[in-house]
Design goal:
By secondary structure, the protein is of the alpha/beta class. It is built from 23 helices and 20 strands.
C-alpha cells in the first residue's frame, strides 16, 4: 500500500449529503459522510442494507439516479472536485480513471452481446484500442481477471457462464481502462465462498500489481476484515466509526459496530449453539468415506427422514452442439433425526438443491429410496404424496421471488391452509395472527404486500407460511444467504427457537459453513453430486479429512482476521 504521512489522498469525501425525492417527500439517504482512500489502498465501506454505503459509492462515481441529488459536501478525486461535473466530464472519468464492479452481473451485463465485445467496448469508448486490437486486448483482460479459456468464453453470452465467471467479466470491464480507483459494490455477495475467495484474491492481486485503490462496499464484515486495511462503518446514512481494520475490529467503539461484529457468523471464533440439541445423524453412501459416522442408537429410533442411494441425472447440451449426462446427484445417502438439523454443504452445482427438490417431491429420482416417518415416498400415488407434503415444507433462498407479490401477507400465510382446506375462514385468520407472533412480526403487517417489507421481514413471512400446516420437517434452501449479517443472525436465532419450541427437524442447504456451524448437528459435504465427507459438525469442522472440506473451511470470510487475532494474542 502506498501511503506516506504527507501523501495526497486519491479520493476524499467530506460532509457528503445525498437526498432522494420521493412521493412522500425528501429522504436523506446519506448525511455528513466522509472517507479517504489513498493510492494502492483498500478501504471497506460496511453496513446493513439502507445504511447509505451504495449511495455513497454511486455519488463518488456519478451514478446517482435522476431523483437523487447531492445537497452538500465534497467529492475530490486526484485533487479535483467532482460534485457539479457535467455529463461529458463524467463519461471521460468513468471507466478510465474510475471503474465500477456492480453486485449483480446478470443485471449489469448486456444479455444479447458477447462478453468479449462488452469488455472491448470500454477500450473503444476511451479510444484505447480499436477493431481487432480491442478484441485481442479484451481476451487478455478476461485472462487477467482469472477467466479460464478466455478466447472461448469471450465468444459466449452472459447466460452461458457461471455466476463466478460473469463476475470475472465485470472485473475485466472495470479494469479495462486501467483505472486508478475501483469501486467494488458487493462484488461477491451472491457467490459460493470458494468462488468468492478466488475472485477477491484475484482482485487483491491485480490491485497490488497495478497500484489501483479499491473502495470495497460490503455488508459482510468477514470480507472487510480479510481484505481491507481501513474500515468505514455506516448506519442510517451516517459514518459511525472509521479507522484501521485491526483497530476497529479489536476495539469497536460504536454500539452499531459492536452489534455488526457480534452478528457476523464468519467472525465468531467460538461455536454458538442456539438451543438444546437432539441427536442427529448422517449415513454416508458408497461415495462417502467408509468410516463416516453413524449414530446407530438414533437410527434405531426410526429417524424422520432417511435417504438412501439417491441418484438424479440430467441430459444437458455441450458447447460443441452434442449432449452429455450430468450426474447431479450420485449415490447420496443421509439421515435426519427428529428435532435435529442436518446441513448439506457444497459449491453451486454440487447437487444440494437437486437433492432438496427430490425430497420435496418436486422432481423424481432415477434411483434410490426416500423414507419419511417410515413411508417410502418414491412409490406413493399423488394423493398420498400430497398428504405427506403437509408434513414437509420448504423455505426458499429469495423470499421476494417465492412470495406472490399480488397477495397480502395474510393471504400468503393463509394460502397453504386454504389449499388443504384447514379450518374456517375465521380460524385461518386467527392462525395467521398466531404465526406472525411466532416469527416475531407485528399483526399489522398482515395487510401489507411483500414489496412493502424488508428482506428480513419477507423471510419471516416465508417461515410463517412454511409453519402454517405444522410440518415436522422444514427444508431450508439458502434461507439467509441474501440477508445482511444482523438480519441473518436474527433469522437463524428464530429458526433455532422454533425448533426448540415445536420440535422441528431441518434439512439446511447452504454454501456457507459458518451458518451451518451455528445451527446444524450434522453435516454432509457434497461435490459434483457425491458425498465426500460427513459427520457431526464439530468433527467435520475441527478435523476435516478431505482437502475439499478444508478448502471450504479456509474460504469462510474472516479467517484471515481470526488467524491474525490469534497470532497477536499469542504474541502478547
Amino acid at each position: 500500500m502506498i501511503r506516506a504521512a504527507d501523501a495526497t489522498p486519491l479520493l476524499e469525501v467530506a460532509d457528503l449529503k445525498v437526498s432522494f425525492d420521493t412521493s412522500r417527500g425528501t429522504v436523506d439517504a446519506v448525511r455528513d459522510a466522509g472517507l479517504t482512500v489513498f493510492r494502492g489502498q483498500t478501504v471497506a465501506l460496511v453496513g446493513e442494507s439502507g445504511s447509505g454505503k451504495t449511495t455513497t459509492g454511486h455519488a463518488v462515481i456519478g451514478l446517482l439516479p435522476p431523483h437523487a441529488r447531492i445537497g452538500a459536501g465534497s467529492v475530490r478525486f486526484g485533487g479535483k472536485e467532482l460534485v457539479g461535473q457535467s455529463s461529458k466530464e463524467w463519461r471521460a472519468l468513468r471507466g478510465r480513471s474510475m471503474g465500477l464492479i456492480p453486485q449483480d452481473p446478470m443485471v449489469s451485463l448486456n444479455p444479447v452481446v458477447r462478453v468479449g465485445r462488452q469488455v472491448a467496448e470500454v477500450l473503444h469508448i476511451h479510444e484505447l484500442a480499436t477493431g481487432a486490437d480491442a478484441e485481442q486486448q479484451a481476451v487478455r483482460m478476461l485472462a487477467d481477471a482469472g477467466l479460464p479459456d478466455p478466447e472461448r468464453h469471450a465468444r459466449q453470452y452472459p447466460h452461458e457462464l457461471s455466476g463466478g465467471m460473469r463476475q470475472r467479466v465485470l472485473i475485466a470491464i472495470a479494469l479495462a481502462g486501467r483505472p486508478q480507483l475501483i469501486i467494488a459494490d458487493e462484488p461477491t455477495s451472491a457467490l459460493d465462498v470458494t468462488v468468492q475467495r478466488r475472485i477477491l484474491d484475484h482482485l487483491e492481486k491485480l490491485a497490488a500489481d497495478t497500484g489501483t485503490a479499491v473502495l470495497l462496499i460490503t455488508h459482510d464484515l468477514g470480507v472487510a476484515a480479510d481484505r481491507a486495511s481501513h474500515l468505514v462503518v455506516m448506519s442510517k446514512g451516517h459514518v459511525v466509526e472509521a479507522g484501521p481494520t485491526r483497530q476497529v475490529l479489536r476495539s469497536p467503539e460504536h454500539p452499531y459496530t459492536k452489534a455488526l461484529f457480534a452478528a457476523a457468523p464468519s467472525l465468531r471464533s467460538a461455536k454458538r449453539r442456539l438451543g438444546p440439541r437432539s441427536a442427529g445423524q448422517t449415513v454416508a453412501g458408497s461415495s462417502a468415506p467408509s468410516d463416516a459416522p453413524v449414530d446407530v442408537a438414533d437410527a434405531e429410533r426410526a429417524p424422520l427422514l432417511r435417504v438412501t442411494g439417491l441418484r438424479r441425472f440430467f441430459t444437458v447440451p455441450t458447447l460443441e452442439g452434442g449432449r452429455e449426462i450430468l450426474r447431479a446427484v450420485d449415490d447420496v445417502s443421509f439421515i435426519v433425526g427428529r428435532a435435529s438439523s442436518l446441513g448439506l454443504v457444497g459449491e453451486s452445482g454440487s447437487g444440494k438443491s437437486t437433492t432438496a427438490r427430490v425430497v420435496l417431491g418436486l422432481d423424481r429420482p432415477h434411483a434410490g429410496r426416500i423414507e419419511f416417518a417410515g413411508q417410502e415416498l418414491t412409490v406413493l400415488r399423488p394423493r398420498a404424496l400430497r398428504e405427506i407434503r403437509r408434513r414437509i415444507q420448504p423455505i426458499f433462498q429469495d423470499p421476494y421471488a417465492s412470495l406472490d407479490p399480488r397477495f397480502s401477507v395474510e393471504q400468503v400465510i393463509e394460502e397453504p391452509l386454504r389449499a388443504f382446506r384447514v379450518g374456517t375462514r375465521a380460524s385461518r385468520r386467527s392462525r395467521v395472527r398466531e404465526l406472525l407472533d411466532q416469527v416475531a412480526l407485528p399483526s399489522a403487517v398482515r395487510h401489507r404486500r411483500p414489496a412493502e417489507l424488508s428482506g428480513g421481514q419477507r423471510q419471516r413471512v416465508a417461515i410463517a407460511r412454511a409453519l402454517a400446516l405444522q410440518p415436522e420437517l422444514v427444508i431450508c434452501d439458502e434461507p439467509v444467504s441474501a440477508l445482511d449479517v444482523s438480519v441473518q443472525a436474527q433469522i437463524l436465532t428464530l429458526l433455532a427457537s422454533l425448533q426448540d419450541d415445536l420440535g422441528l427437524s431441518y434439512l439446511l442447504i447452504s454454501h456457507d459453513l459458518a451458518v451451518v456451524r451455528q445451527i446444524c448437528d450434522h453435516v454432509v459435504v457434497l461435490r459434483n453430486g457425491r458425498i465426500i465427507e460427513s459427520g457431526p459438525v464439530a468433527q467435520v469442522f475441527d478435523h476435516p479429512r478431505e482437502d475439499y472440506t478444508r478448502e471450504l473451511l479456509d474460504a469462510i470470510p474472516g479467517r484471515r482476521h481470526d488467524a491474525a487475532r490469534v497470532g497477536s494474542l499469542a504474541g502478547e
